Amino acid sequence: MVDWAGSDRPGVRAGAAPEMAVRMVGALLALANSEGLNPPLAESVYFDVFARAVVAWPARLALPAALIVLGCLLAQSVLLFRRRALDGRQALWGATGALLNLILGAILGAGSIVLLRFLGKLPPTDAAPWIAHPLPMSIGAAFMALLSAGIVSAWFARRAGFWGFWMGGTLLVALLSVVFNALTPAASFAPLLGSLAAVLGMLPCVLGFLRSRPPTAGATDFAVLLPCLGVSAVLAPMLLLLYAALGALAWAISTIALCLTTTFLLPLLANATRRDRRRVIVVSALMTLIGISVTLLLPTYSAAWPQRINIEYWYDADQTQAHWWVQPASLHLPAALTAAARFNLVAHSRFGASSSLAFAADAPKLTLASPQLTQLSAAPSSSSAAPSRTHYELRLRSQREAPEAFVIFPASADVQEIVVATASGPQHAKLQKLRSGATRLGVVGISSADLQFGIDAVAGRTAVQVFDLSYGLPGASQGARLQQARPQNATSSQEGDITVVQHTVLLDPAAGR
Question: What is the CA angle 117-135-98, rounded to 5?
Fold first, then answer.
């Protein structure tokens, strides 16, 4: 079977265990054949309320609802101007402060991740972004949103005032709701419900203004707290699960999302004393610093949440050279593995077209048969649009009956299509483009059969790299020592420890003519 969804790094292939795959297929078939299944007539926007109930409405109604809520907030803002509770300068400063709150929260959230990654406490960008102890930083990320609001209120409180911040914050969230509903209605419920809560929370104040009476302290507090609590109730279940789904990136997203909540708190901070605003800044900054510091002190990995480290034996049949390759998720080589073999302390790519880095050490040379890529035929491409291209028919075979193989065509070959011969007829493979521009064809299940396929490539001789892959390490004593030296807070993952044999084949358009 052709593995269309491979990686430019062997040893990592998406896919569940066969038993799990059988269960998943069975579940899908049961769902598809269910007589009582009534699919919705249109897409819906939905969210759960503290895992107790699900709220849903048709997606087509989301944008009109967002526009209506925006119109209501604009009408309430006009009333504030007419009753002279707000002037244009205050509204401008309030809008600036609300927007700056989101921007500053994004900077703080992203900056903390960059800092932790720079200090070596987070895996690289292309590695698994989860760590053993995320809770301190998750708490710190939440306080970053409060820190951002405290800083903004200290800068703009006197200029914007209570109603300036109220108008700027509510209209900003309402505008975000319109944009999200226009682009991605499924992700728009939080700003939409926050804006709706702002409209409802303002009603007691509106009644007071219509009666020419200033709103009471209770009414103004209600205008702030209702949207704040509403957004918090909607965001809380999602944010609690966000780290499990995204890893460290969830911290920055959580900070930005919570800034929607703290935007509604800006009016209360405007009414607070300068000392109280300073207390908010100091406490939130201290909690953020504690979250970052504790994250730095705690180990990145543990036995319960280990680092992914596969040990790989690679044999180059052309150069008759063998290497051990180790790629820790953190890109930091454990000292125990360094002591077990003389690894190069500078990470390199396993083969020229790969962008994935790993640490290499010399390994004993074992007699392993190389994979074969046989050129069956070569002829000018039948495509009139590409007269300078050559069509090759190729056959791939693993002499040592390895279960997997992959072929790397260089970027200079400009392979645009791969057609595989199957029992049911020719099948077009989905191309995999590596970062280097090379094209990768991954194959699973070739241990008992050859694979024949055709490609169109730029005319001229082309060097193609062929690899086959088997599970486990060969019978070398040093391999067992490396496996024993793998730390307790590390484990193999996915395909586990593997053996790879590589061979280079030269495709010649003149051969066989």
Answer: 75
Rounded Cα distance, 238 and 403, in Å: 41
- Hey, what are 370's tokens? 């190389």
For residue 506, give the nearest of 373, 398, 400 by alpha carbon.
373
pLDDT tops 80 at residue 125: no
**Residue 233, CA atoms < 13 Å, CB-side half-sphere:** 16
What are 400's two structure tokens? 């040592």
Instruction: Please identify which residue in the block is written with the tokens 């067992």.
Output: 480
Burial of 67 (0-12, 13-18, 19+ CB in 10 A): middle
The mean per-residue pLDDT over the stretch 302-327 comes to: 91
Tell me the backbone φ, ψ of residue 33, rounded to 5 degrees: -95, 5
**Integer angstrom CA distances of residue 430 from 5, 6, 167, 424, 441:** 8, 11, 51, 17, 9
Calpha distance 31→283 (Å, rounded): 51
Q: For 46, how many CA atoms within 13 A lie in the half-sphere containing its CB?
A: 11
Residue 424, pLDDT > 90, answer no
Query: Is the sign of the CA dihedral 324, 330, 333, 337 positive or negative?
Result: negative
Q: Cα-flanking dihedrals φ and ψ of residue 487, to 5°? A: -60, 160
Residues 6+ apart with CB under 8 A from 20: none
For helices 217-246 and 135-183, what crossing angle results, to 10°? 100
pLDDT of residue 5: 38
Q: In this structure, what token pair is assigned to residue 507?
A: 């495709």
What's the Cα-to-Cα distance from 147 to each of 25, 116, 287, rounded to whole Å?
48, 19, 9
Residue-wise pLDDT tens digits, 456-504 = 888 888 999 999 999 999 876 788 899 999 999 999 988 899 999 999 9
Assign 17 a pLDDT band (cuts: 50, 70, 90): very low
The Cα–Cα gap between 98 and 104 comes to 10
Q: What is the mean pLDDT of residues 391-407?
A: 91
Q: 170, 73 in Cβ contact below 8 A?
A: yes
**361-390 pLDDT tens trace:** 999 988 899 999 999 998 887 765 556 888
Assigned token pair, 60:
């087509």
Rounded to 10 deg, the angle between the 135-183 and 62-82 helix axes is 100
Cα dihedral sign for 55, 61, 64, 68? negative
Residue type, 251: W
Task: With beta carbons less than 8 A apart as the criterion, state whether 373 and 501 touch.
Answer: no
What is the band of 34 on the pLDDT scale with cuts at 50, 70, 90? Answer: low
Range 70-78 average pLDDT: 94
What percent of the chain is predicted at pLDDT more than 70?
88
First to last CA, the chain: 31
